Structure formats: C-alpha cells, structure tokens
C-alpha cells in the first residue's frame, strides 16, 4: 500500500482544505482548528481564502466525500472482514457506506441533504481507486493482521467523524 500514500495524502489534504475553509465552522475538524488557533484567526483565514479562491458548490459538497471514498478504497485494498461467517472484501465497504449515508439522509435518519451527485462522485472515485489498486494479492482480515497498513485502513474510516457537524 505504500505506493498509494502518494495518492492518499493529496486527496486528504484537498478534503481538509475544503472542509476547513468552505464548509460550516460547526464541523468537528473546524472546531479543532479554531481551538488550536483562534476564532478570529480562523475567520480571517477563511474569508481571505474563500474570497481569493471561490469554489463551485459541487466541489464544496460532493468532492470531499468522493476523495474520502477514494482514500478508504486505497487503504482497504488487501483486507477483508468476517460478517456472518462470510469474507467481505473491504473495498466493497466505501461505496456501501457512501450510498447508505445518502439513503439515511433521504430518509432523514441522519443530518444532511440527499444528493444523487454525491453518490455518482463517490462511485467515480471508487472506480478510480479500484483501477489504481488492481492486484491479485491475498486478502488479510483487517482486525487480525494488525500492522501499519491495517492501522491506516481503520484510521481512514475514522476520519469521517471529523466531518460531523455539531449543532
């Protein structure tokens, strides 16, 4: 997976940049940034960046999820989970998660607004990640094979919590 870090790092940095400066300041990652700096510093920086580099709403609201799906697909390659005595390839989890999240939004089970474009962007990035990771390597159980790659895989799933919006 080491060769994939060159794809993962820029994708996560772009997502972080969009979340920090274009999404609501109530997201957990923004609250952390504000605590580490100050509200004034954050607001000044956000104003300066959004004025200098205006982004389309589709980039602001759909791209970060797509990039996250891309990253977790790359980190999931080579792992499986056991579910009811079935071996499930972890690369199937990212699109299921993205589609499930959108369905939960549609049914008002979770915060957010259902957007079919989010699903399309997520699937596009999922396919791209699958293309990059084409390999016939033997799968390992992500929970049994604890090493740097499995830790990065599990942590990449936890990143989604940083996008949580506090009300």
Describe the protein in words.
This protein is 61% helix and 7% strand. The protein has helices spanning 5-22, 28-36, 39-52, 57-61, 63-76, 93-106, 116-132, 148-158, and strands spanning 79-83, 86-89, 140-141. It has a three-stranded mixed sheet with strand order 2-1-3, with no helix packed on it. Keywords: Membrane, Transmembrane, Transmembrane helix. The chain crosses the membrane at residues 5-22, 92-110, 116-133, 145-164.
In short:
With 167 residues, this protein is mainly alpha-helical. It is 61% helix and 7% strand. The chain has one domain (2-163).
List the helices and strands and how they pair.
Blueprint (H helix, E strand, L loop, with lengths): L4 H18 L5 H9 L2 H14 L4 H5 L1 H14 L2 E5 L2 E4 L3 H14 L9 H17 L7 E2 L6 H11 L9
Helix pairs in contact: 1-5, 5-6, 5-7, 5-8, 6-7
Keywords: Membrane, Transmembrane, Transmembrane helix
């Amino acid at each position: 997976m080491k060769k994939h870090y060159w794809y993962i790092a820029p994708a996560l940095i772009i997502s972080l940049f969009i979340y920090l400066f274009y999404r609501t300041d109530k997201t957990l990652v923004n609250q952390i940034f504000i605590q580490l700096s100050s509200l004034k510093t954050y607001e000044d920086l956000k104003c300066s960046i959004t004025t200098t580099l205006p982004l389309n709403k589709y980039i602001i609201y759909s791209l970060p999820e797509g990039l996250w799906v891309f990253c977790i697909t790359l980190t999931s390659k080579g792992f499986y989970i056991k579910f009811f005595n079935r071996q499930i390839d972890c690369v199937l989890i990212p699109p299921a998660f993205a589609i499930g999240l959108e369905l939960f939004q549609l049914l008002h089970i979770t915060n957010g607004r259902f957007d079919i474009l989010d699903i399309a962007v997520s699937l596009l990035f999922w396919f791209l990640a699958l293309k990059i990771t084409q390999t016939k390597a033997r799968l390992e159980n992500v929970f049994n094979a604890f090493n740097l790659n499995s830790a990065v895989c599990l942590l990449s799933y936890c990143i989604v919590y940083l996008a949580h919006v506090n009300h």
